[in-house]
């Protein structure tokens, strides 16, 4: 996990994401951080039918101002975190990116090149493109995504809780998080009574076993996971995301959707 992509959205959450990225790179001896403020093309905001030259110019100016404000936050943070250009050369490569770009190009051009994507939890202020970028990050990159709660201001990764279910998503998430587990002071595995401990993907790790009694309701089970995180005072939740089809999730509800709607703790998620 040498390279992370930080996807910025809300200005008041930018520094939180940057701090988390720096912390995780330090934990795993990573060497590169790409910071993306993706400006939305006018056609993705209004569509071709409702677009005029004037409205396109206004939208582009608004997006340029948004990206410039984020760059100001980034530039100040970079100097405080890593020092001058000469000083940071020996620490980590940090790149600022603010192209006008569509979601599919974000994923093909940046997301799949990173080992880890870092972004804020879904926010009611997010535009349609940013909502689409979140789902694309989960479903299309094949990479783990770290969701960071607003205003998170403490270390993450010292006490990790793994929500276990024997699915491809969980196995991928656990395997991707292995480098973090090796650095953790405590690792807990939350599992149902009939679910075997996944020792084949936790080599060298001696986790504490916690039992989860499933209720059959996605929201209730998801809240039980969050309650366990709180009770154990874990600072990172690792889980597989969206274990069922999208149709099933729409009809029956999704534990992943519930957890992403309750930004209580950083969530390391992989589909």
From TrEMBL:
Q: Which Gene3D superfamilies match?
A: 3.40.50.12370
Whose protein is this, by species? Answer: Acetobacter pomorum
Q: Which InterPro entries match?
A: UspA (IPR006016)
Annotated membrane-spanning segments are none
Residues covered by the UspA domain: 220-268
Protein name, UniProt field: Universal stress protein
């Amino acid at each position: 996990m040498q390279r992370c992509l930080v996807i910025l959205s809300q200005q008041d959450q930018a520094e939180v994401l940057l701090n988390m990225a720096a912390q995780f790179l330090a934990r795993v001896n990573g060497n590169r951080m790409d910071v993306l403020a993706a400006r939305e093309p006018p056609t993705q905001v209004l569509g071709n039918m409702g677009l005029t030259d004037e409205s396109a110019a206004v939208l582009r100016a608004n997006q340029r101002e948004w990206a410039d404000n984020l760059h100001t936050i980034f530039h100040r943070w970079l100097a405080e975190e890593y020092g001058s250009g000469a000083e940071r050369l020996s620490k980590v490569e940090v790149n600022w990116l603010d192209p006008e770009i569509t979601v599919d190009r974000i994923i093909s051009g940046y997301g799949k090149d990173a080992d880890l994507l870092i972004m804020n939890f879904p926010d009611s202020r997010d535009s349609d493109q940013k909502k689409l970028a979140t789902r694309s990050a989960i479903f299309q990159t094949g990479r783990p995504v770290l969701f960071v709660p607003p205003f998170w201001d403490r270390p993450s990764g010292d006490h990790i809780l793994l929500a276990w279910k024997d699915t491809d998503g969980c196995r991928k998430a656990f395997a991707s998080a292995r480098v973090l587990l090796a650095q953790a002071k405590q690792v807990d595995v939350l599992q149902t009574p009939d679910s075997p401990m996944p020792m084949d993907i936790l080599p060298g790790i001696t986790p504490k076993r916690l039992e989860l009694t499933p209720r059959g309701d996605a929201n209730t089970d998801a809240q039980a996971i969050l309650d366990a995180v709180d009770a154990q005072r874990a600072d990172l939740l690792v889980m597989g995301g969206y274990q069922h089809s999208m149709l099933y999730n729409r009809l029956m509800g999704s534990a992943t959707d519930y957890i992403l709607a309750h930004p209580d703790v950083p969530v390391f998620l992989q589909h």
